[in-house]
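SEVERITY: medium
COMPONENT: batch folding queue
REPORTER: lab tech (J.R.)

DESCRIPTION
The queue accepted two submissions in a row. Attaching both inputs and their returned structure tokens so the on-call engineer can compare them side by side.

ATTACHMENT 1
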Amino acid sequence: MRRSLLALALLVGMAVAGEPTELFKNPRFENKGQGWENWGKRSDLQILEGVGGGVCLRAETPGLHQGLAQSVQLVRGRKYRYSCTFSAKCGEGGKVGVLSVYVAGSKWNKTLRTVVGQQDEDTHVLEFSVPEDLESDKILFRPVILWGACDVLLKEASLKEIGAGDAVKKQVVHSLPVIVPVVHPMGTLDLSQEKPSNVRAHEDGAVAKALPEGASVEHKDGAFIINYNFTTDKHDAIMFDINKEIVSAAKVSMDLECSAEGHRLFFVLVDAGGESHWCYKPLNLDFVGRKTLTYTLALPKEEPYNVLDSIWGGDKNQHLDLPLKSITIGIDDVPDTATGKGTVIIHNLKIGNWK
């Protein structure tokens, strides 16, 4: 019996000893992120205790990029797992860079992805090998970078060595990919006579099996009549597609009629390669009655190697390829806790590019 207990103790000890060591100080951000540097050339970053653990990072100034950072000395030729768990809500023009790895003067630097809009709590993971000829073995890690106005609840960040590096250990120095600007030809396309298709709803953050009671999208006398019914205190939406080849999509114009104040209109552009691009500046429905509006279909600025969660499906080239195959139009509840019914009517819908 005594031998069995000793053997069990040795096995437990071996298992604990075999666990990779956490390389970050204060990985769960206790005491407002003690041990982490408030990083940024200029900073208005507020660092607050997170509700339910972690740290709340709040920035309100457009144009600044800032966050928490920690420098760690790594071993060349070894492989590491880098992760963070967070939720985010980005203001207009705001975005969050996720899992940044930075060495001054190096082309090896990397960022896993960029998120815009609202991001529910999720864990992001990046595995990488340190090149044997890396200029410096001291590396700056920024689990999240707040670009512009953002509110982020950062629960945990982790960095652990997990084994030998990949077979290719030398730095591969590429020139940055060429960003080809999207050129929208001048002209206007009238969409008011097109028929809505694929009408669908989101309830509680997921695609609903059926439209809520009273919800519909109808087409009558050149107008799209959207009857919404938001039933949950989480994310709800109603949307439809217009399937039409669209050669220019810089902006839309419409006469918009709202029965109640609140919520917002959003657009998703489906390009020639079948890739969906969410326009990250939704149109706030902050009026009652009828207004004539022109709205720019703004997309995030393209940057080398960035992968945006607001772009998905299709050929995955992270670039808007004209002509569009279709456009999705929808109404999103704001705030998510809002419930109730209403009607939004889109008259004289046009898309294109004009001065």
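ATTACHMENT 2
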Amino acid sequence: MDEELKSLIKVWISAIISISYCYYIPPRIKSGVPRLCSLCPVLALFLVLPLCFSSVHLSLITAFFLTWLANFKLILFSFDKGPLIPLPPSLSRFICFTCFPIKAQQNPKSQNHMPKLVFAIKVAIFGVLLHLYGYRKNLSPALLLAPYFVHLYLEIEIILSFIKNVVCIFLGCDLEPQSNKPYLATSLQDFWGRRWNLMVPAILRPAVYAPMRRVSERRMSSAWALFPGILAAFIVSGLVHELLFFYLTREMPTWEVTMFFVLHGVCTAVELAVKKKTTVIQRWQLSPVVSRLLTVGFVIVTGGWLFTPQLIRSGVIERFTNEALLVVDFISQKLFILLGIFITSIVVDFFKKKLFEFLAEILMNYG
């Protein structure tokens, strides 16, 4: 644990120094390839930093924030595109907007923030899941797939919500939500494009989808050119996930996770093609409840088939849950200690007050 904390400090100090360089030097260089070349050392460093950890959580979080988000945002920044353009007015904002899956909200609306009750319910469900892991030896691997998916979703939501609130207080500005109730998605397009991990599609659109669509429009109509763009975005997402899996497993890619995203890209493209046929939509329009069940069910079933097997075989899922249990136990112990100190201070203050009142009464009687 001590070594991991030391590595965490070293990694994020290196990241902050690197991003500070990106804020001051590259903007003075002409956009395009010259600016991209000036950022290459930082991009290379962010590919290596996740390897500094043995912890699954720290490797995953660092890889997601630096290797994926920061690198893609900096590449877009090289060409005057993406969420870092226009250049944020302060270094602190540039660092936060580069590393974290956040974006300043243009038209702040209080209803966009996750209600406290919903967040509390998610934390409670997460706690119940961790408790149920004590009985996982009695359950078949197939039955454990659903809890693993729920655990992954809830932990991502809790961590990102915590980071968002801390950054929001630190920067003093409203931020876009990171997700929009993905369990209510009525289609794959709705799930991947408008509900799940919203910062990722916001980056992939200008970085992959738009360039691929422009190239495709040279050889086909604009109506059909969107399909190669969709497939390219899903393929790139799959390749990045392969890299994330490598950081977690330290094993050579099996390409299962890439196939998962290729499959979803093809299905999303087919879904859009069907939606273009208005007669089909009128005849086969499903109710929102059925659409949600089919969409979420498809994601879970295909995820159990292609997304999680490598993580289960390599023991990453077991390490992931064990680390979560250790962190919860550590926090619980600290909370009990703090609660004990708080109660003790209240009791001591109470008796001190009573003692002073008693002494004051004695002095008054003798006076």
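NOTES FROM REPORTER
The two ends are 62 Å apart (CA to CA).
No errors were logged for either attachment.
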